[in-house]
Amino acid sequence: MTTRKIGIVVSSSRPTRIGHKVAGWVHAQAPEGADVDLIDLAEVGLPHLADPETPRSGNYAEPSTIAWAEKIRSYDGLVITTPEYNGGYPAILKNAIDTLFAEWNGLPVGVVGYGWGAGADAARQLGEVLARVEAVVLPGPGLKFGEALTPEGEFLEAAPAAAAAALFEQIAAAAQDKAPAPA
C-alpha cells in the first residue's frame, strides 16, 4: 500500500463511550508503517454551525472552523467510527460534517459502525450524508455487540480484522483519484 495520511474519527462524545476503543482497534488493523492519526471529535471543540456564511461558500471565519478545515485537508482519507444512537449517528459527527463542505469533496471516507445492530442504520445514514457532500463513501465492517465486541468495547475473536485492514487498502486506492481540496 502506498503510504497515505489517514485519520480515524472517534465520533462519540458521551462520557461512557467506547469509541476510542473501537478507533484503537481500527488503528491496529492499519498496515505496518501507515501514517494514521486518531481524531477525537470530543476534543476538536466545534461550536454548532457558528460561521456566519454557509459552509458551501468556503468563507470560514471562526478559528475552530478554519482549524477543522485545515485538519481535514491534511488527510488523504478518513475512517469514521460511529456508534448507533436511536437508529442514527451522533449529533457531534453531523455537526463536524456540516461545518465544512469543499473539504469533503472527493475525500475517501470509510465507515465502521458499531452497536447492537452492528451500527448498520447509523452507517447507512452517514453514508447518505457523506454522499451529499461529495465524499467517496467506502463501507467498512459493522461491529455487532456480542459477536465482534462487548458493550464495554472489548474485542472478541470473531471481530472482522481482515475487513478493517482491507478498508485501509480501499482508502489508499481511492485517494489516488482524489483531487486536492481548494486552499
Automatic annotation (TrEMBL):
Domain NADPH-dependent FMN reductase-like: 5-147
TM region(s), chain numbering: none
Domain of life, source organism: Bacteria
One Pfam family hit: FMN_red
Protein name: NAD(P)H-dependent oxidoreductase
